[in-house]
Design a protein that fits this description.
CATH superfamily: NAD(P)-binding Rossmann-like Domain
Number of domains: 1
CATH architecture: 3-Layer(aba) Sandwich
Strand content: 5-15%
CATH topology: Rossmann fold
Radius of gyration: 17 Å
Structural class: alpha/beta
Shape: globular
């Protein structure tokens, strides 16, 4: 397998860490971004103890200028980015009639605007080299909606619209663009939810459990693999059967 350079935004989170580890296990050189240097360095050291050496670059994916600077720093450290996983995301949940413009814009900028901000600096290089893999990490709630998440659901649904347009524009350049839409996964954030609330969530999942971050990482790795080169513009829903759309 050819070694590629992979950039995973939001890589220090639960799903992001699993994606970083999976791509590294496949022989790729992997980097992620950070905003809080102390937390990022602690994460990097913990990963080194586990046998993984990841690059780090400072950058707020919601800001076009710092996102581009982050991409250039990854290129300086590891080389041109061939694999981009747009994974960074936040929530600012509240019902829409109580939602502030800031709560709306923060989520749209970080979850959806970041797809432009980080992809734009790498797409020309991918086109020139005639190879690239771009994967958006969307959400089950971008497919079915969710009470109190008009901002989040709109951003996550928009990610797939971005995917299918970008896929059409770049297919002839050897670049595939796909989306992964996880359901409820047992990350630290989800496990911090009160147990009675988690139990109600699990009761809605036909397979009877939360997902594992490694299961999401495997799906991302599937799209990145050379053997998936005929798959582009697709969305892979991974939710234990909680939402079964087309």
């Amino acid at each position: 397998m050819t070694t590629r350079v992979a950039l995973v935004t939001g890589g220090t989170g639960g799903i992001g860490t699993a994606i970083c580890r999976y791509l590294a296990s496949q022989g790729h050189k992997v980097a992620t971004n950070y905003r809080d240097e102390g937390k990022a360095r602690a994460w990097q050291e913990a990963q080194k103890k586990a046998g993984f050496d990841f690059g780090l670059a400072k950058g707020d994916v919601a800001d076009p200028a710092t996102a581009e600077a982050m991409v250039r720093e990854v290129e300086r450290q590891l080389g041109p980015v061939d694999i981009l996983i747009n994974n960074a995301g936040i929530t600012r949940d509240t019902t829409f009639h109580k939602m502030s413009a800031t709560q709306w814009q923060d989520v749209i900028s970080t979850n959806l605007g970041s797809c432009f901000n980080v992809t734009r600096p790498v797409i020309d290089g991918m086109r020139e080299r005639k190879w690239g893999r771009i994967v958006q990490i969307s959400s089950i709630n971008g497919q079915k909606g969710q009470y109190g998440q008009a901002n989040y659901a709109a951003a996550k649904a928009g990610m797939h619209g971005f995917t299918i347009s970008l896929a059409q524009e770049n297919a002839k350049f050897g670049i595939t663009v796909n989306t992964v839409s996880p359901g409820y996964v047992g990350t630290d954030m989800v496990m911090a939810v009160p147990e009675d609330v988690r139990s109600k969530i699990v009761a809605q999942i036909p397979v009877g459990r939360l997902g594992d971050p490694d299961e999401i990482a495997f799906a991302v790795g599937f799209f990145v693999d050379d053997r998936a080169r005929w798959i582009t513009g697709a969305n892979l829903a991974i939710n234990g059967g909680q939402y079964m759309g087309w």
